[in-house]
Specification:
Blueprint: H1 2-7, H2 9-77, H3 81-107, H4 112-139, H5 144-208, H6 210-249, E1 254-259, E2 264-267, H7 269-275, H8 279-282, H9 297-310, E3 312-320, E4 326-337, E5 343-352, H10 354-368, H11 378-395, E6 399-406, H12 409-416, H13 418-435, E7 441-446, E8 449-454, H14 461-475, E9 478-480, E10 483-485, E11 489-496, H15 503-519, E12 525-527, H16 530-552, E13 555-563, E14 570-581, E15 585-587, H17 593-599, H18 602-622
Parallel strand pairs: 11-12
Antiparallel strand pairs: 1-2, 1-5, 3-4, 4-5, 6-8, 6-11, 7-8, 9-10, 13-14, 14-15
Helix pairs in contact: 2-3, 2-4, 2-5, 2-6, 4-5, 5-6, 12-13, 13-14
Length: 629
């Protein structure tokens, strides 16, 4: 630049007089511009410092909100009460810290938009905080129902509320970021303008007088110092933004950000670790490339409707990893909008819930299936039988219910052990399942009892075919460990609608028919009839009254003498039991001994007979009668 000045020395001499006048004017202008720039720079520095404070406080609030949600979720899965109590204390400390930091934020100067965002964030707290505290309190209990209720509150109320809180705080932070970036741009622009203006000033100073150069140089140096200080502060603000970017990158949850056109612009490390995809694989692509086609289309329709109406959605999606594995995830999506209300970005965070889904499916299976045989359990049988009855009624069809009881199964458990007995039950269940159709029902009613429901039997003869098939297939030998076992079933059959029009009646009548099959020698099947029911009811009545007879001393012993043919003396007596019924009179043993044996009352009856016979022998002995047998 000095060489250029010497080359134009002749022009400077000509313009010296004019330059002197212009210099005075420019000097005044320079003083004015430099002073104004310095003041503006000071104001900008103060505003940037305040914006940085607000941005930092908003970020801390968002992190506290995430921590509270994460700790509440963690608390549900803890089993130790003291660990839960420690988490609860930490939650209370975070709540206090959140309130304190938010108070500091409200003390800073806030514009209308910032106040609006904080009001929106504050409106979420009364809706979620009580439920969060309730979920934490429920988590302190060991009751599964309380834990389940706590989980429901978390996923339906607390987590959505926390996501909304975080969304509002991130919007607040982004506004501060925009403000700092605009200030940096303005500062750089002002810096460049001053540099250009200073070049002109230097040219005129050298043309007019050296004395003015000293003054201008001092002003320039002061201006450059202020600009360098502003630039340094801007750099510090950018470093803070980098820190926030790292918080996104190293978040424990997988996160993805898309633009307004739903094209991926960024993912974090947790996302890559979970899915196997890198940013290079996905940048610029629609997230639907991750879909597994297992998620129903209705779910995506609901998701987009919620995002358009409420700017938020959370739910369950099934996606595919880079290696092809299908996994379930719980995802929360928030919409970020600019000051004009236009969509700017979509931010999604999610966690892998595949293990939880598998556990839920296992629990669901155990709730409806017998844990030993894998057949439907009694609870599920009631539901499915009821549905089959409704279908048969609607279609005007018949269905058959087969009540199957294994004959003398107790002997297997008593002689070979319950382990062999359980394996035998598993084999029997598999044979029953293989013997029926796909649309029929096989269930274990308990113990060695099974129930088969045959839908749409068509002709009545089909019932006998199915029953005979099950009889034969169960009666085949079983090879279990080193044992060859044989066992037979007794089957009772009731038919809808003739033998009952509800589940309980059909089961009861099939049970009656099964007992009739046992009375006929076992290893057969019997169709229910009302004569059977009457017989069973009479049998139950005798069983009940016999028990009363034992308690009320209604039984009597009659003694039949045995005479020795050699000497005509009574050598022994035979004790014969009789039941003196208060209404029916004397009942002979033929009518109640078999029932006593089958129900177990025979032990009490036998004990009474022995005691009574011994008592009578003692009386005879005391009266002087010869000893009898």
């Amino acid at each position: 630049m000095g060489r250029l000045i010497f080359q134009k020395n002749s022009q400077i001499t000509f313009l010296a007089a004019l330059g002197y006048i212009i210099l005075m004017v420019l000097f005044a202008v320079v003083i004015f511009l430099v002073s104004r720039t310095s003041e503006q720079q000071k104001i900008t520095n103060i505003e940037n410092k305040i914006a940085s404070q607000k941005m930092q406080l908003a970020t801390e609030l968002a992190e506290i909100a995430r921590s509270r949600a994460r700790l509440t979720g963690k608390m549900i899965y803890l089993e130790d009460y003291f660990e839960k109590d420690e988490v609860k204390i930490e939650l209370d400390l975070l709540a206090g810290k959140f309130a304190r930091i938010r108070g500091e934020l409200l003390e800073l100067p806030l514009n209308k938009d910032e106040l609006a965002l904080l009001k929106l964030q504050a409106s979420v707290v009364p809706k979620t905080l009580p439920f969060q505290r309730k979920a934490a309190q429920l988590a302190m209990d060991d009751d599964p129902a309380s834990i389940k209720e706590a989980q429901r509150l978390l996923y339906e109320v607390v987590f959505p509320g926390q996501e909304m809180t975080i969304s509002y705080l991130l919007q607040f932070r982004d506004k501060q970021k925009q403000q700092i970036e605009l200030a940096a741009m303005a500062s750089n622009k002002a810096h460049q303008e001053l540099i250009d203006f200073n070049k002109l000033i230097f040219l005129f100073v050298f043309l007019v007088a050296v004395v003015f150069a000293a003054i201008i140089i001092v002003k320039i140096r002061n201006t450059e110092t202020a600009l360098l200080k502003s630039k340094k502060q801007t750099q510090l603000a950018l470093e803070e933004l980098k820190l926030y970017e790292n918080s996104f990158e190293y978040s424990g949850e997988a996160m993805v950000i898309t633009d307004r056109n739903n094209c991926i612009v960024n993912i974090n490390s947790a996302f890559s670790l979970l899915t196997g995809y890198s940013l290079k694989d996905l940048i610029g692509k629609d997230p639907k490339v991750l879909a597994s086609e297992k998620t129903p289309p209705e779910t995506y329709e609901e998701m987009w409707h919620s995002l358009k109406q409420e700017s938020f959605w959370q739910g369950e999606l099934w996606d595919k990893k880079k290696n092809g594995d299908i996994y379930a995830k719980w995802i929360s999506i928030s919409v970020l909008k600019d000051s004009m209300g236009q969509v700017q970005n979509y931010i999604a965070s999610f966690t892998d819930i595949t293990d939880r889904k598998n556990t839920e499916e296992r629990i669901e299976h155990l709730a409806h299936h017998d844990i030993l045989t894998g057949l439907y359990n009694r609870f599920s049988l009631g539901e499915r039988l009821g549905q089959s009855i409704l279908n048969a009624k609607r279609d005007q069809e018949q269905l058959a219910l087969l009540f199957i009881d294994l004959d003398k199964f107790k002997n297997v458990n008593d002689t070979l052990g319950h382990n062999i007995g359980d394996k035998l039950l598993i084999e029997v269940a598999q044979r029953i399942k293989n013997a029926i159709r796909e649309n029929d029902i096989a269930a274990r009613n308990g113990g060695d009892e099974f129930v088969v429901v045959v839908n749409d039997i068509g002709r009545t003869e089909f019932i006998g075919y199915i029953a005979e098939k099950i009889l034969n297939i169960i009666a085949q030998p079983y090879h279990i460990e080193n044992h060859v076992l044989e066992i037979t079933p007794s089957i009772g059959i009731s038919v809808y609608p003739y033998d009952g029009q509800d589940s309980d009646t059909l089961l009861k009548n099939a049970d009656v028919a099964m007992y009739h099959a046992k009375e006929l020698g076992r290893n057969n099947f019997q169709l229910f009839s009302h004569e059977m029911l009457a017989k069973i009811q009479k049998r139950l009545s005798i069983e009940h009254e016999l028990n009363i007879a034992l308690q009320n001393e209604q039984l009597e012993l009659y003694y039949q003498p045995l005479v020795n043919a050699d000497n005509n003396y009574i050598s022994a007596v035979e004790a014969l039991v009789r039941w003196r019924h208060p209404e029916r009179g004397i009942i002979l043993p033929d009518h109640f001994i078999n029932i006593a044996e089958e129900t177990g009352l025979i032990h009490s009856l036998g004990a009474w007979v022995i005691n009574e016979a011994c008592r009578q022998l003692s009386v005879w002995k005391e009266s002087g009668l010869a000893p009898l047998r």
